[in-house]
C-alpha cells in the first residue's frame, strides 16, 4: 500500500508512523511518501492531510498543483484522512477568505473555535466504529458547525461534530496521530468500503463504520 502524507507544512512524521502501525496490524506493508510536489498523489492508494496552518497549507497546495490531484484522488473514491487544519482545507467552507478550501466534505468549519477556550486538551471520545473511547488531542482545533445530508457524524464533543465521514473521506478536528493509538487511521484506511486493501477479508467487519 502506498500512503501519501501531504507535507507542504504541518505535522508529518507522526502520521507516517500511525499509517505504518495501522497497516502492520492488517499484515500490510505501507510505503509512506511525503508529498511536496505535484505528480506523486496519483500513485498513492491512500492520502493523509495533516494539521498545521490551514491558510499556508491551502495556498501551497494550489501553488504546487497538488490541490487538483487531491480532488481527483477523492473523486476516484480513494481514502483520505484529513486532520485539524487538514479538515479545514478539505471542507466546503472555512468562512475565511485566506483558506482556499478543496470542497471534499460538505461541512462548514469554524477555525480555532476550540482554541479560544483552551489551546490544547485531551478527551476520551466515543467514535462510531470504535469499541473503546479514543484519546483525542485537540490543538487550536476547528469546530464543524454545519454538515450536509451526505455527511455522517462519527463523533461529537460538547454538542459539535469533531469527526465526520463522507464517502472515502474521514476528517477529525483532533490529532489522532499524536497518540500511540492508530485506530482512526485504521478506520480511515481499512475500516470502510473504500478500504485500501480489498483483498483483506477482515475489512468486511467494519465496512459499515
Ligand atoms: N488552527 C489551525 C488552522 O486554522 C489548525 C490547528 C491545527 O492543525 N492544529 O489552520
UniProtKB/TrEMBL annotation:
Gene3D superfamilies: 3.40.50.880
Active-site residues (renumbered): 84, 175, 177
Assigned EC number: 4.3.3.6, 3.5.1.2
BP terms from Gene Ontology: L-glutamine catabolic process; pyridoxal phosphate biosynthetic process
Signal sequence interval, chain numbering: none
Recorded superkingdom: Archaea
Pfam families found in the cross-reference section: SNO
Pathway: Cofactor biosynthesis; pyridoxal 5'-phosphate biosynthesis
Catalytic activity: L-glutamine + H2O = L-glutamate + NH4(+); aldehydo-D-ribose 5-phosphate + D-glyceraldehyde 3-phosphate + L-glutamine = pyridoxal 5'-phosphate + L-glutamate + phosphate + 3 H2O + H(+)
Biological function: Catalyzes the hydrolysis of glutamine to glutamate and ammonia as part of the biosynthesis of pyridoxal 5'-phosphate. The resulting ammonia molecule is channeled to the active site of PdxS.
Name assigned to this protein: Pyridoxal 5'-phosphate synthase subunit PdxT
Organism: Halobaculum litoreum
Lineage: Archaea, Methanobacteriati, Methanobacteriota, Stenosarchaea group, Halobacteria
Gene: pdxT
Amino acid at each position: 500500500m502506498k500512503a501519501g502524507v501531504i507535507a507542504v507544512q504541518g505535522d508529518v512524521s507522526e502520521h507516517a508512523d500511525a499509517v505504518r502501525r495501522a497497516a502492520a496490524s492488517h499484515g500490510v506493508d505501507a510505503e509512506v511518501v511525503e508529498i511536496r510536489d505535484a505528480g506523486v498523489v496519483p500513485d498513492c492508494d491512500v492520502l493523509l492531510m495533516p494539521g498545521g496552518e490551514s491558510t499556508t497549507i491551502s495556498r501551497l497546495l494550489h501553488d504546487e498543483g497538488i490541490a487538483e490531484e487531491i480532488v481527483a484522488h477523492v473523486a476516484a473514491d480513494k481514502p483520505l484522512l484529513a486532520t485539524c487544519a487538514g479538515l479545514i482545507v478539505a471542507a466546503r467552507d472555512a468562512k475565511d477568505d485566506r483558506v482556499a478550501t478543496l470542497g471534499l466534505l460538505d461541512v462548514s468549519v469554524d477555525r480555532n473555535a476550540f482554541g479560544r477556550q483552551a489551546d490544547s486538551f485531551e478527551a476520551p471520545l466515543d467514535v462510531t466504529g470504535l469499541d473503546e473511547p479514543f484519546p483525542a488531542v485537540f490543538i487550536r482545533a476547528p469546530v464543524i458547525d454545519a454538515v450536509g445530508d451526505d455527511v455522517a457524524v462519527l463523533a461529537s464533543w460538547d454538542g459539535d461534530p469533531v469527526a465526520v465521514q463522507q464517502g472515502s473521506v474521514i476528517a477529525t478536528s483532533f490529532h489522532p496521530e499524536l497518540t500511540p493509538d492508530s485506530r482512526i487511521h485504521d478506520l480511515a484506511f481499512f475500516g470502510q468500503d473504500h478500504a485500501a486493501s480489498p483483498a483483506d477479508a477482515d475489512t468486511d467487519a467494519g465496512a459499515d463504520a
